[in-house]
């Protein structure tokens, strides 16, 4: 008998797969889940983009109005208002908050988090405190109560789709006594199983990648960085799906009953997707205990109370260093007296002391994330979740990098107008036009992509081990 080619076997199995309406129904339901999840992510990304654009435009318009009013005042065509005098820095810039946005994530649409770890917009000025009210790092293993987005669908639901489509690729034939007939057709059981799994693997991969590609096109800011991120995410997806299809092959090679094979795969899914991530999350909290929120709030208040107790000394020290008399009459009303001589020096003193606390919180987040990435080698679902989170902009390191840029810009903003406030010097048109602007910068290339490659390794290693085991098991599989 002539040996059947693998391509011909693929065509035969493809026809058999799509002839079964159950398979088509499963793929259709999965496609609907991807569509809803993708829409949630794209809508969330578009909303964040629109909110940031509106805030940036409003900020530019506000400064344009100040410049216009200042020119009219200088020309004698307008009178300054009591609380709206563009010549007074403590009125025009001291409390002005500027909208700052981080460097856009490669695949922001993957997540539909309403309150992401890295904020899409942060308002920062001379007198703002960009502190974090909740310093506890969110455990990524707790995802079932999260938003219905592509991260959830791919990391948690896609394995179930794989199980539904492939739990009986060989066990059903053994159960019905058809495996011996298949083995007598001059085609090995291994080639038959590989052809069946290849058809299912290609079908699921095309459905997921197609849905994500549509979301990528519809999401704002799609560019080369998004394409590069999408390519790496697709590689992770293929490794992730390869793990589950190889696992199905391994279980089918050893099972003679389809129900038993399905139960085994569901048990593995529960362990790999639910139990192991939970244990890894617990270990991460034990290895790097999160800073207690209550203690942080108490420390925050204690620092505020301590500085408030010494506010006169703080103001005196600040103005002495600036060689300015804080008690002079030209400061004007009580409003100017308080905000210039008390509030602003206190803010500088508080930020100087609190930055160390904030930095320790960000380091704690990063340490927990590192522990989770190490634990991801035990759970492909957790690895896929962390990979998607990172490409969606949710890595703690991305947040810490953005906050460092925010701190640097706040220092520039204060340096530009500090003298105007402390010496009560009049603002000029040139001061407004030369104001420092925030330029978001990407996280260093090596730091960002080393994390991504590590997570790809966490997906590839289990897939390689299970694929090798399945290959050996299928070689020894008997009808």
Report on this structure.
By secondary structure, the chain is an all-alpha fold. The protein is 70% helix and 1% strand. It contains 16 helices and 2 strands. The protein has helices spanning 6-19, 21-74, 89-92, 150-166, 171-176, 179-183, 189-218, 224-254, 258-287, 293-309, 311-321, 334-375, 380-391, 396-422, 429-433, 445-476; strands at residues 98-100, 122-124. Strands 1-2 form a two-stranded antiparallel ribbon. Helix 8 packs antiparallel against helix 13, helix 8 runs parallel beside helix 16 and helix 12 (334-375) runs antiparallel to helix 14. The chain is elongated, with a radius of gyration of 30 Å. Residues 132-143 have low confidence and may be disordered.
Task: Record keyword descriptors for this entry.
479 residues; elongated; single chain; 16 helices; two-stranded antiparallel sheet; mainly alpha
Number of domains: 1
Helix content: over 70%
Instruction: Record the strand order, biggest sheet.
Output: 1-2
Alpha-beta content class: mainly alpha
Number of helices: 16
How many whole angstroms does the radius of gyration measure?
A: 30 Å
Cα-to-Cα separation, first versus last residue: 20 Å
- Count of individual beta strands: 2
Q: What amount of the residues lies in strands?
A: under 5%
Write the H/E string, N to C: HHHEEHHHHHHHHHHHHH
Dominant shape: elongated
Low-confidence stretches: 132-143
Q: Largest beta sheet, briefly? A: 2 strands, antiparallel
Average pLDDT for all residues: 85
């Amino acid at each position: 008998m002539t040996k059947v080619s693998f391509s011909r076997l693929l065509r035969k199995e493809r026809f058999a797969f799509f002839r079964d309406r159950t398979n088509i129904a499963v793929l259709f339901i999965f496609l609907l889940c991807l569509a809803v999840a993708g829409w949630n992510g794209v809508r969330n990304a578009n909303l964040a983009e629109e909110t940031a654009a509106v805030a940036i435009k409003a900020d530019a318009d506000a400064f344009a109005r100040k410049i216009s009013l200042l020119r009219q005042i200088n020309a004698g065509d307008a009178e300054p208002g009591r609380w709206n005098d563009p010549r007074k820095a403590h009125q025009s810039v001291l409390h002005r908050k500027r909208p700052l946005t981080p460097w856009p994530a490669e695949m922001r649409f993957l997540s539909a988090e309403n309150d992401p770890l890295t904020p899409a917009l942060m308002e920062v000025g001379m007198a703002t405190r960009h502190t974090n009210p909740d310093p506890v790092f969110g455990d990524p293993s707790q995802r079932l109560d999260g938003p219905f987005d592509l991260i959830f669908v791919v990391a948690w639901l896609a394995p179930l789709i794989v199980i539904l489509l492939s739990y009986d690729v060989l066990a059903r034939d053994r159960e019905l006594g058809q495996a011996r007939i298949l083995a007598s057709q001059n085609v090995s059981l291994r080639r038959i199983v590989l052809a069946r799994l290849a058809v299912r693997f290609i079908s699921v991969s095309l459905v997921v990648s197609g849905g994500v590609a549509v979301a990528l096109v519809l999401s704002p800011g799609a560019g080369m960085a998004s394409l590069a991120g999408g390519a790496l995410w697709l590689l992770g997806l293929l490794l992730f799906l390869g793990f589950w299809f190889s696992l199905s092959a391994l279980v089918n090679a050893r099972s003679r009953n389809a129900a038993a094979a399905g139960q085994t795969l569901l048990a593995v899914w529960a362990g790999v997707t639910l139990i192991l991530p939970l244990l890894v999350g617990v270990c991460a909290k034990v290895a790097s205990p999160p800073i207690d929120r209550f203690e942080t709030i108490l420390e925050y208040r204690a620092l505020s109370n301590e500085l408030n107790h010494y506010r006169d000394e703080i103001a005196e020290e600040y103005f002495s260093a600036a060689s300015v008399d804080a008690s002079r009459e030209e400061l004007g009303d009580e409003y100017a007296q308080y905000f210039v001589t008390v509030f602003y020096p206190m803010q500088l003193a508080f930020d100087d002391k609190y930055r160390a606390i904030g930095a320790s919180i960000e380091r704690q987040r990063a340490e927990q994330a590192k522990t989770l990435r190490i634990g991801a080698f035990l759970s492909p679902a957790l690895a896929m979740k962390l990979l998607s989170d990172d490409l969606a902009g949710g890595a703690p390191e991305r947040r810490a990098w953005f906050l460092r840029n925010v701190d640097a810009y706040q220092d520039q903003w204060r340096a530009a107008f500090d003298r105007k406030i402390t010496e009560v010097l009049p603002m000029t048109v040139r001061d407004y036009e030369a104001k420092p602007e925030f330029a978001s910068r990407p996280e260093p290339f090596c730091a960002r992509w080393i994390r991504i490659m590590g997570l790809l390794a966490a997906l590839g290693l289990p897939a390689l081990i299970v694929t090798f085991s399945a290959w050996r098991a299928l070689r020894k599989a008997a009808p």
